[in-house]
Amino acid sequence: MFPWHSPAGETCQFDWSHEYVILNGVLQTIKVAHFRLAHSRRMFLAAYPRETQEMVFDAHIRAFTCFGGAPKRMIYDNLKTVVDVIFAGKEHQFNRRFLTLANHYMFEPVACTPESGWEKGQVENQVGNVREWLFTPTPRFESFAELNAWLALRCEELAGRRHPEQTGRTIADCFIEEKPLLIPVKAVFDGYVEKTLRISSTCLIKVDHNRSAYLPNGRIVSFHCG
User: Fold this and answer.
1) With left for phi above 0 and alpha for psi between -120 and 50, is residue 129 left, alpha or beta?
2) Residues 176-186: pLDDT tens digits?
3) Which DSSP helix (H) or strand (E) runs through 61?
4) What is the CA radius of gyration of the chain?
5) Which pLDDT score, from 0 to 100, does residue 53 have?
6) How far apart are the C-alpha atoms of 64 and 1, rounded to whole Å?
7) What gap in Å lies between CA 32 and CA 151, rounded to an integer?
8) Neighbours of 101 (CB within 10 A)
9) d(CA 68, CA 127)
């Protein structure tokens, strides 16, 4: 079991939640990526239409850019985009491309024991709080860009709340001390994904409900297949 509290710069917890928003006049279910620095309690939120691996990568890039660095370790549920195989006990085989992200930012990925969400209890609590604070009642936005700009602003505002343990200080005060202890970001990760695909006899490949023509010069032209 992982402690909820850790030294500054040591640990960040990650989770997804589903929320309801009205985007461009239409009620939609979206996914929100949650990050929570365990020491300062500083949070970062980013919204996406789904939970694909490229969106996991983008969320990490945004979070570490916002924090000004990466923690020494990240704690996850057993997400399919992060963990390929779960062995007996606490042994896991992480996705190779995800490990490339971890190596780039030099953090250690740690997977929770299956069905043991309390091992990342801070971010689990954050999910419930954020749903109450930010998504009740259902907010309205014109686009994901507008929604994410609003989430970034609200994260800054919520950092002004009192720290739950260091009650004489705010989360922002504690984050000022934690930020220099994070691993500096020297270059942004190239968040593409890799997949092994079969090329049909008509030189077509199918990727995420889209068919693409594979051309002799190596170019790929995509079209939606409904």
Assistant:
1) alpha
2) 999 999 999 99
3) helix 53-67
4) 19
5) 92
6) 25
7) 10
8) 22
9) 23
